Amino acid sequence: MKTTLIALAAGIGTFSSMVSFLREPIPLVDYVEDITGKAQRGLGIDDAELLSSAGISAGTLEALRTGSPDEETVRRVAPVLGLDPERLVASARKAWYAEVPKSP
């Protein structure tokens, strides 16, 4: 945002283009593979424990890590990592966006 304000102050953009940009959905910063990887590392869970606790195969875990898991995998892994299954599924579908701030 600071960079954008500097660009506006320098005359590089217009206020209306800035407002238009801010009204578009904001993409996720972290994808399902990032979220699950960070949770796994944060909890200190190794791969063997995750595989066993979630009841998934090594190939299924690899699919999760490359961003192409099926929903059942996401639903199995989420509780092991202390994550909400429905929200993690939405992330895997790339169906969730942060709310766009309302202008005054």
Question: What does this protein look like?
Answer:
The protein is built from seven helices and no strands. The protein has helices at residues 2-9, 15-23, 32-43, 47-54, 58-65, 71-80, 85-92. Helix 6 packs across helix 7 (85-92). The chain starts with a helix and ends in a 12-residue tail after the last helix. Mean pLDDT is 80; it is low at 1-10.
Class per helix and strand makeup: mainly alpha
The low-confidence runs, each spanning 5 or more residues with pLDDT under 50, are: 1-10
Number of strands: 0
How many helices does DSSP assign? 7
Question: Could you outline the blueprint of secondary structure elements for this entry?
Answer:
Elements (H helix, E strand, L loop, with lengths): L1 H8 L5 H9 L8 H12 L3 H8 L3 H8 L5 H10 L4 H8 L12
Keyword list:
104 residues, mainly alpha, 61% helix, elongated
Quick take:
The protein is an all-alpha fold and 104 residues long.
